[in-house]
C-alpha cells in the first residue's frame, strides 16, 4: 500500500467531485522533505506526518468540517512549492517580494510599536523583526528547547486530529518559538505580522508560544497581503491559502491574551499603496487558523478572533485545561458580507477539576454569507467542579445568509456547571422601534444595533487607546473596530457616524 | 374655528393588531382633541387600549389603522414613519423601555438630539456642547454621571428606566409628549422627580398626554382634562375630579 492510499480516507469524495489531493508523488515528497530538512525538526514533522496519516485528509463526511465544502480547499493541501527544495536558510518568498519598511510600519499598532515579528508566507524573518523586551524569540531549528517542552510539542503534533493543522506542522519551514520567562511580564504586547506574498501561494506557519510560570503577556496577530502589488497589472491574482497553527503552552499561573484580527482588517497601508489587505485579494483567499493551547495549574488564556471572513475562513481552537484552576476564554466576532464564509471550530477539554471556560461567538451575516460555529465542551470524568459555558449568537441581516450553530456538551463528571446556548435572529424590532421613536432614521438605527451586537465581544479586547497609545495612531482595538465596523458601515451607509457627516 | 388650535386630534380611530384569523380589534373609534398648552390624562383598566393608542400615535409598525385619522398640528401623520414623527416633535415615553446593550446612552441621546436639531434646521451640537446640555438636564432629574457611561437602559431598575425616559424627553424637548405609564414602578421620591420633569416641559406650545393606571401621578401633575378609556373607546371625559372619582370607585361604574 502506498502512503497516499493510507492518507486518502475511504469515503473521500463520495458527494464531491474528485479533487487532486496528495498524489503518490507528492506523498513521497513528505518523507524526503523531512529527511532533507533540519534534523532539529524531524521529530515534530514526523509526529505530525504520522498524525496526518492516521487522520486522513478531510472529506465530505468529516464531522469536523461538516459546515464546509471540503472541495473548496482540498486542492490546496498538497506540499507547498517550497517542498521541492527543502533547503532552509535565507528566506526567499515563494512569490512576490518581501515587505518593505513602509509595509511594516503601515501594519504596526500603537501599543506594540517597538515589539513585532514579521512572518512572510508563514516563515519568520528575524532581519525585519523587533521583538520587545521580555519575549525571547527564535526558531525551532536554532533553539534548544528544554526536554519537557520539546516533548510537549511533539505530543501536540502526534495527537493532532486536524489534517490541515498537521500539514502546517509538517511543512512549516522553521517554526517560530516565542518564550516568556517565568515571572516575566513584558510591558508591550508582541505583534505578529503575517505577510502573504501572493497569488496561488500556500503558506504554513507553525508558532510555539511558551509562557513560563506566572508570566503574563499579550500576543496580537494581524494579516496583510502583498499580493496586489506583486501581481503584474492586468494579471488576475488567484487565491492563496494561508495556514497558521499556533501552539500555546502555559505553565503554572501563566497568563496569555491572544488577539487576532483576521484578514479584512483594512490597514492604513492599503490606502497608501503599501501592504494591505485589499478587498479583492482577501476575498479569494482561504484562511486556516488554529490555536492549540495547553493550560497548566492556575494559568489563564483569553483568545479573541475578529475577522470578516473570506472565500473560506476556518478558525479552530483546541484548548486543554490540564491543571486545576486554569481558566480559558475563547471568543469570536465576525462580520460577513457578500459571499464570504467564516467557520469556527472549538474544542475545550476540561481534564481536571476546578477549571473555568467561556466561549462567546458572535456573527453578523449579511447578503449570501455563511457562518458556522461548531463548539464542544468536553468534561472528563474526574473534572469535577467544572464551570463552563458557551454562547453562540448570530445576527442575520439577510434572508439569503446562513448561520449554523452546533453547541455541544460532552460531560462525564457529575458535579459541574455547564451551559450552552445558541441564538439566531434578526435585529430586535422592539429595539429598532425604540431608536426610531427618538428620531433616528431606520438605517441609522439598524447600523447602531448591529454595531452594538458585535461590540460586546470586541469590548473584551480592551478599550481603544489603552496602553498609552500614541495620539493619532491606531491601537489594536481600533484595528479590530475598523476591521469589523467599517465593513458594517459600508454595508449600512448611515452607520453610527452618519450624523457627524450628514 | 381652525384645527390648528389643536396640537393633537384623534378622529374616529379604529385599529387592529395581527393578521387573518389572529386579528384583534383594539381601538374601536377613539376621539380625542388636545389643545396646545394642555395636559390630558388617559386612565383605564388593563387591556383597554391605552398603550395601543400611544404606540399608534408614535408610529409603531405592528398596528394597523382601519379607520380614522391622527392629526398633529393639523397634519395627518398616519402615513409618516416613527422617526419622521419623532423629528416633527412627537415623543413617546415607553411603559417598558427596552434595554439596548452595547449602545451608549449618552451617544444615543446626542444622535437623537442632533436628528431633531437637523429637522428643525438648526446647527448640530458637537460632543462637548452636547455634554453640557446633557449634564444640565441630568442634574435637574437628579441623575448621576454613570448614566452617560451605561448602555441604553441596560441593567437599569424600573425607576431608572423611567427617569431615563424623562431625560430623553427633556433633551428632545418635544411639542407633544405621550407618556405611557411613566409613573408605574416608581417610589414617591422618584415620582416627584419624574413629575418635576413633566411639569418643566409643560407650557405654551407644548401638549402632554399622560397615560396612567393610577391617580397618584395626577397629584403632582395637574391635568386639564381626564379621559377614561375602556374597551377601545373613551367612555368618559371630565376634569381632574374624574381621576379622583376613579381612584375612589374603580372603573366598574364607568364600564357598565
What layout of secondary structure does this protein have?
The complex is a heterodimer of chains A (502) and B (256).
Chain A: H1 3-7, H2 24-36, H3 39-55, H4 101-107, E1 116-120, E2 123-124, E3 136-139, H5 147-158, H6 163-171, E4 176-180, E5 190-196, E6 202-211, E7 216-225, H7 227-230, E8 241-250, E9 255-261, H8 268-272, H9 279-284, E10 286-295, E11 300-307, E12 312-321, E13 327-336, E14 341-350, E15 356-365, E16 370-379, E17 387-396, E18 402-411, E19 417-425, H10 429-436, H11 442-458, H12 476-491, H13 498-501
Parallel strand pairs in A: 1-5, 4-6, 5-7, 6-8, 7-9, 8-10, 9-11, 10-12, 11-13, 12-14, 13-15, 14-16, 15-17, 16-18, 17-19
Antiparallel strand pairs in A: 1-2, 3-4
Chain B: E1 6-17, E2 24-35, E3 39-43, H1 50-58, E4 63-72, E5 75-76, H2 82-88, E6 90-93, E7 100-104, H3 105-119, H4 127-140, H5 146-149, E8 151-152, H6 158-172, E9 176-180, H7 188-201, E10 207-212, H8 217-220, E11 225-230, E12 233-238, H9 240-249, H10 252-255
Parallel strand pairs in B: 3-10, 3-11, 6-9, 9-10
Antiparallel strand pairs in B: 1-2, 1-4, 4-5, 7-8, 11-12
Helix pairs in contact in B: 6-7
> What distance lies between the first and last C-alpha atoms of chain B, to the nearest angstrom?
35 Å
Main CATH class of chain B:
Alpha Beta
Overall pLDDT metric of chain A: 82
- Poorly predicted residue ranges of chain B: none
Largest sheet of chain B: 6 strands, mixed
Query: How would you sum up the global shape of chain B?
Result: globular
- Low-pLDDT parts of chain A are 1-21, 86-93, 264-278, 465-472, 493-502
Note the overall shape of chain A: globular
Could you explain the architecture of this structure?
The complex is a heterodimer of chains A (502) and B (256). Chain A is of the alpha/beta class. Chain A has a domain at 427-502. Helices cover 25% and strands 31% of the residues of chain A. Chain A has 13 helices and 19 strands. Chain A has helices at residues 3-7, 24-36, 39-55, 101-107, 147-158, 163-171, 227-230, 268-272, 279-284, 429-436, 442-458, 476-491, 498-501, and strands at 116-120, 123-124, 136-139, 176-180, 190-196, 202-211, 216-225, 241-250, 255-261, 286-295, 300-307, 312-321, 327-336, 341-350, 356-365, 370-379, 387-396, 402-411, 417-425. Chain A has a ten-stranded mixed beta sheet with strand order 2-1-5-7-9-11-13-15-17-19, covered by helices on one side. A nine-stranded mixed beta sheet of chain A has the order 3-4-6-8-10-12-14-16-18. In chain A, helix 3 runs antiparallel to helix 6 and helix 10 packs across helix 11 (442-458). The longest helix of chain A has 17 residues, at 39-55. Chain A is globular and about 70 Å long. The model of chain A is unreliable at 1-21, 86-93, 264-278, 465-472 and 493-502 (pLDDT under 50). Chain B has a single domain (3-255), classed as Rossmann fold. Chain B is α/β, with parallel strands linked by helices. The two termini of chain B are 35 Å apart. The model of chain B has no long low-confidence stretch (mean pLDDT 92). In chain B, helix 6 (158-172) packs parallel to helix 7. The chains are: A alpha/beta (502), B alpha/beta (256). At the A-B interface, helix 10 and helix 11 of A face helix 2, strand 7, helix 3 and strand 8 of B.
Amino acid at each position: 500500500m502506498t502512503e497516499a492510499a493510507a492518507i486518502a480516507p475511504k469515503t473521500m469524495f463520495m458527494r464531491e467531485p474528485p479533487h487532486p489531493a496528495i498524489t503518490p508523488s507528492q506523498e513521497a515528497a513528505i518523507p524526503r522533505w523531512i529527511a532533507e530538512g533540519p534534523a532539529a525538526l524531524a521529530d515534530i514533522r514526523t509526529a505530525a506526518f504520522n498524525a496526518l496519516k492516521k487522520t486522513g485528509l478531510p472529506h465530505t463526511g468529516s464531522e469536523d468540517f461538516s459546515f464546509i465544502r471540503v472541495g473548496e480547499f482540498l486542492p490546496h493541501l498538497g506540499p507547498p512549492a517550497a517542498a521541492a527544495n527543502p533547503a532552509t536558510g535565507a528566506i526567499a518568498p515563494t512569490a512576490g517580494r518581501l515587505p518593505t519598511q513602509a509595509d511594516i510600519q503601515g501594519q504596526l499598532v500603537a501599543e506594540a510599536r517597538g515589539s513585532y515579528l514579521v512572518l512572510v508566507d508563514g516563515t519568520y524573518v528575524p532581519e525585519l523583526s523587533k521583538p520587545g523586551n521580555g519575549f525571547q524569540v527564535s526558531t525551532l531549528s536554532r533553539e534548544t528547547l528544554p526536554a519537557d517542552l520539546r516533548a510537549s510539542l511533539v505530543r501536540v503534533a502526534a495527537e493532532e486530529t486536524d489534517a490541515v493543522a498537521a500539514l502546517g506542522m509538517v511543512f512549516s519551514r522553521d517554526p517560530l518559538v516565542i518564550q516568556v520567562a517565568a515571572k516575566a511580564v513584558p510591558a508591550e504586547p508582541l505583534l505578529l505580522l503575517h505577510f502573504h506574498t501572493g497569488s496561488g501561494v500556500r503558506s504554513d506557519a507553525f508558532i510555539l508560544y511558551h509562557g513560563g510560570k506566572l508570566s503574563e503577556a499579550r500576543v496580537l496577530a494581524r494579516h496583510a497581503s502583498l499580493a496586489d502589488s506583486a501581481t503584474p497589472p492586468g494579471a488576475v491574482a488567484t487565491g492563496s491559502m494561508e495556514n497558521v497553527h499556533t501552539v500555546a503552552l502555559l505553565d503554572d499561573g501563566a497568563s496569555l491574551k491572544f488577539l487576532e484580527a483576521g484578514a479584512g482588517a483594512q490597514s492604513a497601508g492599503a490606502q497608501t499603496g503599501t501592504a494591505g489587505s485589499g478587498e479583492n485579494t482577501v476575498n479569494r483567499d482561504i484562511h486556516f487558523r488554529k490555536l492549540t493551547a495547553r493550560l497548566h495549574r492556575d494559568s489563564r488564556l483569553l483568545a479573541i478572533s475578529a475577522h470578516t471572513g473570506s472565500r473560506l475562513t476556518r478558525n479552530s481552537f483546541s484548548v486543554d485545561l490540564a491543571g486545576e484552576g486554569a481558566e480559558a476564554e475563547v471568543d469570536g466576532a465576525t462580520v460577513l458580507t457578500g459571499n464570504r464564509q467564516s467557520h469556527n471550530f472549538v474544542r475545550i477539554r476540561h481534564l481536571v477539576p476546578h477549571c473555568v471556560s467561556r466561549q462567546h461567538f458572535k456573527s453578523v451575516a449579511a447578503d449570501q454569507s455563511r457562518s458556522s460555529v461548531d463548539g464542544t465542551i468536553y468534561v472528563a470524568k474526574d473534572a469535577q467542579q467544572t464551570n463552563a459555558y458557551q454562547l453562540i449568537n448570530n445576527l442575520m441581516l439577510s434572508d439569503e445568509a446562513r448561520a449554523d450553530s452546533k453547541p455541544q456538551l460532552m460531560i462525564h463528571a457529575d458535579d459541574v456547571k455547564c451551559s450552552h446556548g445558541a441564538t439566531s435572529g434578526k435585529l430586535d424590532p422592539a429595539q429598532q422601534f425604540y431608536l426610531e421613536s427618538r428620531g433616528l432614521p431606520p438605517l441609522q438605527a439598524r447600523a447602531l444595533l448591529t454595531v452594538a451586537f458585535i461590540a460586546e465581544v470586541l469590548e473584551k479586547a480592551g478599550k481603544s487607546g489603552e496602553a498609552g497609545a500614541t495620539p493619532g495612531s491606531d491601537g489594536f482595538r481600533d484595528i479590530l473596530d475598523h476591521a469589523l465596523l467599517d465593513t458594517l458601515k459600508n454595508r449600512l451607509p448611515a452607520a453610527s457616524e452618519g450624523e457627524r457627516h450628514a | 374655528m381652525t384645527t390648528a388650535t389643536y396640537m393633537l386630534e384623534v378622529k374616529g380611530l379604529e385599529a387592529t393588531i395581527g393578521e387573518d384569523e389572529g386579528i384583534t380589534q383594539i381601538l374601536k373609534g377613539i376621539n380625542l382633541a388636545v389643545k396646545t398648552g394642555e395636559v390630558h390624562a388617559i386612565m383605564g383598566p388593563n387591556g383597554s387600549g391605552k398603550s395601543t393608542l400611544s404606540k399608534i400615535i408614535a408610529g409603531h409598525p405592528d398596528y394597523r389603522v382601519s379607520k380614522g385619522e391622527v392629526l398633529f398640528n393639523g397634519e395627518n401623520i398616519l402615513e409618516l414613519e416613527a422617526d419622521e414623527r419623532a423629528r416633527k416633535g412627537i415623543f413617546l415615553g415607553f411603559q417598558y423601555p427596552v434595554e439596548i446593550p452595547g449602545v451608549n446612552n449618552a451617544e444615543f441621546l446626542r444622535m437623537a438630539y442632533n436628528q431633531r436639531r437637523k429637522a428643525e434646521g438648526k446647527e448640530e451640537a458637537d460632543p462637548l456642547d452636547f455634554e453640557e446640555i446633557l449634564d444640565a438636564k441630568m442634574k435637574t432629574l437628579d441623575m448621576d454621571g454613570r448614566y452617560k457611561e451605561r448602555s441604553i437602559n441596560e441593567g437599569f431598575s424600573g425607576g431608572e428606566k423611567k427617569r431615563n425616559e424623562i431625560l430623553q424627553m427633556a433633551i428632545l424637548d418635544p411639542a407633544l409628549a405621550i407618556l405611557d405609564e411613566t409613573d408605574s414602578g416608581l417610589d414617591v421620591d422618584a415620582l416627584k422627580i419624574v413629575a418635576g420633569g413633566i411639569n418643566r416641559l409643560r407650557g405654551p406650545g407644548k401638549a402632554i398626554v399622560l397615560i396612567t393606571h393610577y391617580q397618584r401621578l395626577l397629584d403632582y401633575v395637574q391635568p386639564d382634562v381626564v379621559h377614561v378609556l375602556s374597551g377601545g373607546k373613551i367612555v368618559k371625559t371630565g376634569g381632574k375630579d374624574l381621576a379622583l372619582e376613579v381612584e375612589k370607585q374603580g372603573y366598574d361604574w364607568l364600564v357598565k
